[in-house]
User: What shape does this take?
Amino acid sequence: MKILVTGAKGQLGNELKELALKYPDYRFLFTDVEELDITDAKTVNAFVAADQPEVIINCAAYTAVDKAETDEESAFRVNATAPANLAKAAKKHNILLVHISTDYVFDGKVYLPLKETAPTQPVSVYAKSKFAGEQEVLKHASRALVIRTSWLYSAFGNNFVKTIMKYGAERGKLNVVFDQTGTPTYAHDLAKMILEILPAAKEIKGVQIFHYSNEGVASWYDFAKAIIELSGINCIVNSIESKDYPRPAVPPFYSVLDKQKIKETFGIEIPYWRDSLKDCIRRLGAG
Assistant: This one.
């Protein structure tokens, strides 16, 4: 199976690279903006026509959530225009598109695990751009999986885990919000799941939305406490309210994703968030 991966330098893209050797039946072509500018339709069409992949995994995204508030054009170009280009090219060549989306498409005001059919209400510019990307895939793709995930972290790039470890070690005391609830997602687990389900996913007709995160529920405070504990850093973590840590982009206050659909459709088991965090910290050389 020939697989084109976009956004290969990001967290998920790097995890897919690391797993690639374990899947000898898959032939990967990893690209980032230097090799393939997915915001340019002509470039995408020419690249896909020449390469003829069976699957496109779109890991590319504008993820600077707060910066997007003052850089709307860039956010929409990467998060909405690019998925539209990929969806159109995928349809033209009968390619399965796997597109990654986010819990930010919800406003977080419903305190129940969110199913794929739950009403969407994006609030921030980032959220609106990612929701627009979903809509473009739904509109233009003929075969696609839209996978919403949350609180992504990994051994690569910049993320909450690395930030907490860095500042925890430097400062010895951290204040972290306790009133935002969701589930951390280890990009390694997400990448592995995607590669495992591809044979079955290729048989799916139309475009379907799925939710995936690790199992369990946590606040950012819980997450930070676990990071400090598992990494063995001497640091006090204090809980604060979101109003005491204002951000340009308003996050969803509750974004626990219901994963029953993806578990039943593909017969997968999902690791508990704390177990996956322990593995990530081990890979980072701590704990």
